[in-house]
Amino acid sequence: MGKKRKRQRPAGETFTLVDNGENLLEGLVLRRDAVTVAEEAELLTFINDGLARGRNGSIRKPTYLKAEGARSRGNRRESLQYGGFFDFNRGRPGKRGLVPPFPPILERLVANLVKRGFIDASLNPDSCIINSYAPGDCIPPHTDHAAYARPILTLSLLGEEPILVGRSFRSTRACAWEPIVGRSVTLPRRSLLLLGGNSGSVAKHCVSACAGPRVSITLRRQPPEDWRPDASELIGGETHKKRKPLSGSAKRRKKREKLLTRRTEPSRRT
Ligand SMILES: O=C(O)CCC(=O)C(=O)O
Ligand SMILES: [Fe+2]
Question: Can you give the pLDDT at residue 48?
Answer without folding.
Answer: 98
